[in-house]
Amino acid sequence: MKDNFTLSSIEGTWRFNDNVAKNFDKHVNQSIPHYKDLQLYISALAEWFIKDGSVIYDLGCSTGESIKNICKLNTKTKFEIIGLDSSKKMIDLAKKKLNLKKLKKEGVNISLKTLDILKIKKFKKSDLFLSVLLFPFINIHNREKIMQKIYKSLNPGGGFILVEKIRSSDPQFEDILNQLYFDFKLRQNLSESEILKKAKSLRSSMFLFNEKKTTQLIKKIGFNNYEIFFKCFNFIGYIIIK
């Protein structure tokens, strides 16, 4: 059956429902500039933190694209990846995308779980966390609580790869970057009505802050070593080391 989902079919507040999940990979490539390159950067950075016995968390793993790319590294190490997402459909699609039995034979143990990340009391001792565009949908209070748990879980020298959507600190640059971003979406064959409807749907579900606010939170948690590895329009990627 042909899938007729379009951004114009969105009604009300943006939700990661089953229909969005089924079209997520296509949608995210249309919506995030340099998304494929960004995923390659994430897996390349991950290689610096993966050792035999490492535990890796992907928070808000969606359809498992980051996990798939990490498993392609062929590091010859045996490690565990735990992918968490609140959408059961996303987890089901991730299971289809990843050959879990084959990877387990190669020494990669992958657990994919449908779970509300806000309800997790603590994580296992870990060497790496990924959070790719999860935090824009979490308010600042809950972000801080999650980051505190990440900090406690990470082994010394462990990494936290954080990809955010931010606001500009200056209104003029905010206007410029937003319009450049809309131009990008138009080049991805999204219509003006789709772009506007998506923006409207995000009004009450997205919590954006400027770069200064984000770095203040990183420092407040106790992370002192961090660097920006990606930035395009309103999107920014941090590599943070405990």
Structure in words:
The chain is an alpha/beta fold. The chain has a single domain, classed as Rossmann fold (3-Layer(aba) Sandwich), CATH 3.40.50.150. It has ten helices and seven strands. The protein has a seven-stranded mixed sheet with strand order 3-2-1-4-5-7-6. Helix 4 (65-71) links the parallel strand 1 (55-59) and strand 2. Helix 3 (35-46) packs across helix 4 (65-71). It is globular and about 50 Å long. The relative contact order is 0.16.
| Shape-level CATH architecture | 3-Layer(aba) Sandwich
Give the strand line-up of the largest sheet.
3-2-1-4-5-7-6
Order of helices and strands: HHHEHEHHEEHEHHHEE
Summed over residues and divided by their number, the pLDDT gives a mean of 91
* CA-CA gap between termini: 48 Å
Count the DSSP helices. Answer: 10
Short summary:
The protein is α/β, with parallel strands linked by helices. It has helices spanning 18-22, 24-31, 35-46, 65-71, 88-97, 100-105, 140-153, 171-187, 192-201, 211-221; strands at residues 55-59, 79-85, 108-114, 126-132, 154-165, 225-232, 235-241.
Describe this protein with a few key phrases.
single chain, about 240 residues, alpha/beta, Rossmann fold, 7-stranded mixed sheet, about 40% helix, about 20% strand, globular, disordered N terminus
